[in-house]
């Protein structure tokens, strides 16, 4: 889902400057333009081999808290999450070939030679493993309907949505603001 990546995810999560409404605005457009089954089949991503990585200086500038928040969205939002290799290791390459860093020593001709970057105990790896398990344990995250509960139209802030399947409902709250936020009834 390149439009979600380009028009919302970077502004909302990497730069932490966009209104969370940008995500819902994108969802509304998808819902209006495509078959209802398509919304659950779009592939969502935070970085890939054609763009600067999420943690690069041109995006989140190494802020792993922003990445953790974006990953939580990636694994709980509607659609199919796609994790680009190295995100779980904190890779932060900006331009080609630096956005294609080596995972294992000597495997990429233009990458750093002799450095093995795969670490199953790294905090990001463990965080993503937990998100994967959470998604596996709660079918509403993969098959459930999506209902927007709240989004901020003014700027960074709260974004809340439910994922519902049969009697299972998961309520997700995300805060993209730099300060604590309160949602009043």
Task: Please give a quick description of this structure.
The protein has helices at 2-14, 21-33, 64-76, 123-137, 140-143; strands at residues 43-45, 80-82, 145-151, 158-165, 168-175.
Question: Could you explain how this protein is built, in words?
Answer:
This protein has 185 residues and is of the alpha+beta class. It contains 5 helices and 5 strands, in the order H-H-E-H-E-H-H-E-E-E. 31% of the residues lie in helices and 16% in strands. Helix 3 links the parallel strand 1 (43-45) and strand 2.
Keywords summarizing the entry:
three-stranded antiparallel sheet, two-stranded parallel sheet, alpha+beta, 185 residues, 5 helices, globular
Low-confidence stretches: none
Helicity range: 25-40%
Distance between the termini: 33 Å
Number of strands: 5
Q: Assign the structural class, choosing from mainly alpha, mainly beta, alpha/beta, alpha+beta, or little secondary structure.
A: alpha+beta
pLDDT average, as an integer?
90
Secondary-structure element order, as H and E?
Answer: HHEHEHHEEE
Shape: globular
Q: Radius of gyration over alpha carbons?
A: 17 Å
Major β-sheet strand ordering: 3-4-5
Q: Count of DSSP helices?
A: 5
Biggest sheet, open or closed, and with what strands and sense?
3 strands, antiparallel
Kindly estimate the percentage of residues that lie in beta strands according to DSSP.
Answer: 15-25%
């Amino acid at each position: 889902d390149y439009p979600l990546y380009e028009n919302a995810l970077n502004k909302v999560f990497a730069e932490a400057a966009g209104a969370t409404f940008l995500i819902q605005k994108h969802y509304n457009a998808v819902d209006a333009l495509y078959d209802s089954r398509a919304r659950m089949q779009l592939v969502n991503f935070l970085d890939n081999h054609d763009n600067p990585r999420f943690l690069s200086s041109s995006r989140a500038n190494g802020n792993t808290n922003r990445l953790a928040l974006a990953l939580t969205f990636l694994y709980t939002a509607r659609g199919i999450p796609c994790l680009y290799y190295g995100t779980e290791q904190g890779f932060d390459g900006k331009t080609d070939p630096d956005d294609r860093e080596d995972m294992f020593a000597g495997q990429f001709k233009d990458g750093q030679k002799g450095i093995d970057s795969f670490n199953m105990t790294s905090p990001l790896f463990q965080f993503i493993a937990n998100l994967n398990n959470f998604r596996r344990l709660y079918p509403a995250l993969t098959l459930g309907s999506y209902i927007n509960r709240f989004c901020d139209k003014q700027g960074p802030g709260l974004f809340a949505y439910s994922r519902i399947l049969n009697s299972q409902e998961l309520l997700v709250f995300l805060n993209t603001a730099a300060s604590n936020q309160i949602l009043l009834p």
